[in-house]
Write a structure and sequence with these properties.
Length: 228
């Protein structure tokens, strides 16, 4: 399965055991395999790789849904430049695995089950010291013109480990445009530990993951372990 752009270059490419197509207006259909895979090149020539037993596509390949009735959906976003590239190391790639349905288009990536996000090394293995984000639900807002991920919204048991920062909250937003992370928990159970020695349990906190500047509201427990 191929979807060509204006220069007749393959923008989407799929591989599987069975392809079911409907060609009324824009191609729609299903790609089945063990697993099936789809590779897509966005407007900024960044690559998106999806793997699942069932891949549904619509709008000429612009909209993709990955579904696995019994297993895990795997989604890789190759991004050697731009905001998301800082998640990775040499490769600039990020892998997302989800126990549910993944919907992706040029504006958003939506995960319908428990999802784990990891940065990858150049050889494709997981970067143990890199970006780690887990949550029950997650969506990533993308710039529709460049395809770059600009914001990540994680809800229900979000856990972040990155750049020697550990954060746990019911709701978490990572803003790649401002290099900030916001965590919220109305039961004052949000927790953040910074490499500067600051630790807090609070309802809300914001921190810059590059400069380590942080502030918290409705704090129950706070400690600055840099002070003796």
């Amino acid at each position: 399965m191929n979807h060509l752009d204006e220069d007749d270059q393959p923008r989407s490419h799929g591989r599987g055991d069975l392809l079911v197509l409907e060609l009324l207006h824009q191609p729609t259909g299903r790609l089945l395999g063990a697993p099936a895979s789809v590779t897509r090149r966005d407007a900024a020539n960044q690559t998106v790789l999806g793997e699942a037993p069932e891949i549904l596509f619509g709008n000429g390949g612009e909209r993709i849904r990955l579904r696995s009735p019994t297993g895990v959906v795997r989604f890789v976003l190759g991004n050697r430049k731009g905001a998301l590239a800082m998640f990775g190391t040499e490769s600039g790639s990020t892998v997302m695995t989800c126990n549910g349905i993944v919907d992706a288009d040029d504006r958003e990536i939506r995960f319908g089950g428990w999802v784990e996000v990891r940065s990858l090394l150049a050889d494709g293995s997981e970067d143990v010291g890199g970006f780690h984000l887990d949550a029950e639900r997650m969506r990533m807002k993308r710039n529709p013109e460049t395809g770059e991920v600009e914001r990540v919204f994680a809800t229900t048991g979000a856990r972040l480990r990155w750049r020697r920062i550990v954060a746990v909250a019911e709701d978490m937003t990572v803003d790649l445009l401002t290099n900030t992370c916001t965590i919220v928990d109305h039961l004052a159970a949000a927790q953040v530990r910074m490499p500067t020695g600051l630790w807090a349990s609070c309802r809300r906190a914001e921190f810059n993951y590059l400069t380590y500047d942080a502030k918290a509201w409705h704090t129950l427990v706070a400690a600055d372990r840099t002070r003796k």
